[in-house]
Every structure is written in C-alpha cells, then in structure tokens.
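Continuing the batch. This is chain 6 of the set; chains 1 through 5 are on the previous pages. Same settings as before, nothing changed between runs. Recording input and output for traceability.
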Amino acid sequence: MKKKISIAIDGPSAAGKSTIAKMVAKKENFIYIDTGAMYRSVAFYCIKNHIDLNDEQAVEQAISNIQIRLTADNKVYLNDEDVSLQIRTDEVSLGASCVSKYQAVRTFLVDEQRKMAETGNVILDGRDIGTVVLPHADLKIYQIASVETRAKRRYLENKERGLDADLETIKKEIEQRDYQDMHRAISPLKKADDAIELDTSNMTLEEVVDQVLTLINKTREE
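Output for chain 6:
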C-alpha cells in the first residue's frame, strides 16, 4: 500500500496552483482542498451582504454566519448555496486578499483546513500552506510564473468563463494582489525553507503535472 502523504502548493495569484492541484488530485486519487475558494467565499459573503471589507470587526462578526463545504467534484457551497462560479470574479479575488489579512478569518479557515487534511492523501494550495497551515506537509512546492504569463492565463480563463477581461487591468490587479499578499502582517506569501520552487512560465500544464507527480513518487520513496 502506498504511503499516505500531504502536499502543500504555495505561490502567487494566478500561478496555476489550483489547476495543477486539481489535476494531480484526480490522477493520484487525492482529496483536493481549495483553500483559496474558502477565502473567496468569506469575501463573497461580505460583498453580497454589503459588509465593508475594510472593517475588520464587521468581517469578524460575519464569520459566525458562514459555513463552507467543499465537495469531491470541486464544487464550493457557501451556506448550502453553490457559489463555485460566483467566487471567481476579479472583485472577489481582491476581496479575498483583503479579508485574508484578518487574524479571525485566518484562524477560522486554517482550523477548517487542518481538520480536512487529517485524513492524509490531501493536496492543498494557497499562500501559506507550507509555512502556516501544514508546516509538516510531506511535500512542499512553491509554484511561480512571471506576471505576464499569469496575466495571460487569467485573461484566457475569464474569456472562457464569459467574464469581461482586459489584459492590462488583469496585469495591474495581479501586481496589486502580489504586493498585498507579500506585505500583509499575518501569514504573508513566502516560500517555505524546505519547499521546492517550480517556475511554470514556460511549461505546459501537462509538464507541470508530470513534474509534480515525479516529486510525489520521490517523496513516497524517502
């Protein structure tokens, strides 16, 4: 029987972490825990209920009304409503970066993520998985790509979803998100000391997946 392992994939916005994590989870029959979707769900709840994202106390109070459920088919439920598509807008992305600065939000979601990860054979992606959420993960990957590459990927994603997309605007939003994520006081985006850096700027999805699968097999052998 193969050894059960936990995998943490960190990296900046639009680096393709979720896409890779989902593909690897499917191939390896792992449970995929979409941590970004959880932060997006909190932001979406606040936006929908006209709660000021910059009002930390108001956001903190809102947490008690939030229940998030992730399903095996990658659906995201917020208080039993399927919000899988609604949480993918750029407005919600920036909102997620904002609410993730608050300690109460992070404590609430990190607890949820750790509970989900207890089963083993899980893959999580985010900004602080290897440094905060699962510091003892068996395999840590820090996935990066150039701003230009990430903007193009997000642009094409938005087009495919039928969302409005402007390449220059997306580029600026990604740069803004990078700055916010790297400079926040609580759990900033950074590479764990024992993480393996993977630059996907010039790689196809299949090449990245193959690289991650190789790293998984190596980890199991150690």
